Amino acid sequence: MDFYSYDVYIFDFDGTLVLSNEIKEEAFYFCANNFLDGRAIMKSIKESFYNKDRYTIFTAFIKHYYQDKSVFENEYKAILTKYKKYTINQIINAEPVPGSIDVLKNLRVNNKKIFVNSATPLDSLKQSVEGRGLDIYFDRCFGMESNKSKNILEIARITSANLNSIIMIGDGLDDKEAADHLSVSFFPVGKLLSGRPPSFLNLVKS
User: Fold this and answer.
1) Which of 25, 34, 92, 119 is found 20 to 30 A from 128 (Cα to Cα)?
2) What is the reported pTM?
3) What SS3 string covers 108-143?
4) How far apart are the C-alpha atoms of 11 and 111, rounded to whole Å?
5) Which residues contact 75 (CB under 8 A, 6 or more apart)?
6) pLDDT above 70 for 206
């Protein structure tokens, strides 16, 4: 089907609409800098917990340094706050994926229903979306509080859309797996899934 023929469009955020994957990766090391051998310890933990969320990674990182429960809790909360502030500030000012804003404009002009489905905590996701002024394009954002397949099903429910009228757009294996699990159409973005740098320029209408 033609990209613009669907009724509901569900976008991942980082790496799909914004060039922010590297920002989130570097943020872990930024937060580790003040700890003894922090970067090396963080590297080891991230290799052991490949593709895990921030909570899992920072739990393991802080446990490496602090065994006392009360100290752990304070340090854990502090490093999560530091990570959140750093990533949001950087993402708000990051470059958009080429053509992404034009595609969102085209979809909005044509009265399509548009959503974000991200593995980022909803509060951080909303701050990033609103900080970039992108909230005007989206009907609603969905974060990591539920998995991506369940978010797609919830979007189908609230829009009363058939799954065959929905397309998921993303740069990660979790995006493709969620779409494939529900037999929803999928549009790949970025080198991992498309073999090309992230871009929507081929979809921009003149």
Assistant:
1) 34
2) 0.94
3) HHCCCEEEEECCCCHHHHHHHHHHCCCHHHCCEEEC
4) 16
5) 62, 65, 66
6) no
Using CB atoms within 10 A of its CB, is residue 6 exposed (0-12), middle (13-18) or buried (19+)? buried
The model's pLDDT over 140-180, given as tens digits with 9 standing for 90+, comes to: 999 999 999 999 999 999 999 999 999 999 999 999 999 99
Q: State the CB neighbour count (10 A cutoff) for residue 91.
A: 24
Residue 169 and residue 174: Cα distance in Å, rounded? Answer: 11
Burial class (CB in 10 A: 0-12, 13-18, 19+), 32: buried
> Which of 102, 141, 96 minimizes the C-alpha distance to 4?
102
pLDDT digit string, tens, across residues 8-38: 999 999 999 999 999 999 999 999 999 999 9
Report how far residue 50's alpha carbon sits from residue 43's, in angstroms, rounded to the nearest whole number. 10
Report the C-alpha gap between 44 and 61 in whole angstroms.
9
State residue 190 phi and psi, 5-degree precision: 90, 165
Residue 7: count of CB within 10 angstroms of its CB: 15
> What residues are paired with 9 via a beta bridge?
114, 167
Q: Are 78 and 58 in contact (CB under 8 A)?
A: no
Output the CA–CA distances (angstroms, integers) from residue 6 to 40, 111, 199, in the order listed. Answer: 46, 11, 19
- For the chain, the residue count is 206
